C-alpha cells in the first residue's frame, strides 16, 4: 500500500530568509554583503563609504591583498552590483535615496 508520506512540498523560499545586517539597504545582494563583509568590521564601515563599481572592487582587492579577505568567487559580482547601486558615488546636490522603510508599500 502506497504511503503518502513526504508528499507535502516545501515552498521554495518560504523559510529562513537570509539575515541582513542592520542598516544595510534591503535588496538583492544584501545577504551576501552581510555574510562576507561584516565579519572583520561592522556593516557601518561599509555603509559609510561611497564608490563606483571600480572603487568597490579596488577596496575589495586591497582587503584581499592586505587584510586576509577571502576570494569572493560567485558572490563577487552580486556584491559589487549591490554596493555600486546602493552605495555608489553621490552626485552633489542630490539627496540620499529614501530608505525602503520610508517608501510607500504596494
Ligand atoms: C578578512 C577581514 C575583512 C573582511 C572579510 C572584509 N574586510 Fe573590509 N576591511 C578590513 C580591514 C582590516 C579594514 C581596515 C579597517 C580600519 O581601517 O579600521 C577594512 C576596511 C574596509 C573599508 C574602509 C576602507 C577605507 O578606505 O576606509 C570598507 C569600505 C570595507 N572594508 C568594505 C568591505 C566590504 C565591502 C567587504 C566585503 C566584500 C569587506 N570589507 C570585508 C578587513 C576585512
CATH topology group of the domain at 30-89: Cytochrome Bc1 Complex, Chain D, domain 2
Estimated radius of gyration: 18 Å
Helical segment count? 4
Name the helicity range. Answer: 25-40%
Question: What does it look like?
Answer:
The structure is a single chain. This protein is an all-alpha fold and 106 residues long. It has a domain at 30-89: Cytochrome Bc1 Complex, Chain D, domain 2. Helix content is 36%, strand content 0%. It has helices spanning 30-37, 43-47, 53-66, 76-86. The protein is globular. The relative contact order is 0.16. Heme C is lined by residues 36-37, 39-41, 45-46, 49, 59-60, 63, 67-69, 79, 83.
Fold blueprint:
Layout: H1 30-37, H2 43-47, H3 53-66, H4 76-86
Bound molecules: heme C.
Quick structural summary:
The protein has 106 residues and is mostly helical. It has a domain at 30-89: Cytochrome Bc1 Complex, Chain D, domain 2 (Orthogonal Bundle), CATH 1.10.760. Helix content is 36%, strand content 0%.
Descriptive tags:
106 residues; mainly alpha; Cytochrome Bc1 Complex, Chain D, domain 2; binds heme C
Amino acid at each position: 500500500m502506497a504511503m503518502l508520506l513526504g508528499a507535502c512540498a516545501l515552498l521554495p523560499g518560504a523559510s529562513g530568509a537570509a539575515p541582513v545586517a542592520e542598516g544595510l539597504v534591503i535588496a538583492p545582494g544584501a545577504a551576501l554583503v552581510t555574510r562576507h563583509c561584516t565579519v572583520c568590521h561592522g556593516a557601518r564601515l561599509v555603509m559609510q563609504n561611497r564608490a563606483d563599481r571600480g572603487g568597490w572592487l579596488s577596496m575589495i582587492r586591497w582587503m584581499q591583498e592586505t587584510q586576509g579577505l577571502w576570494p569572493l568567487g560567485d558572490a563577487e559580482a552580486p556584491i559589487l552590483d549591490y554596493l555600486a547601486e546602493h552605495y555608489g558615488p553621490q552626485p552633489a546636490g542630490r539627496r540620499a535615496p529614501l530608505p525602503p522603510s520610508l517608501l510607500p508599500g504596494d
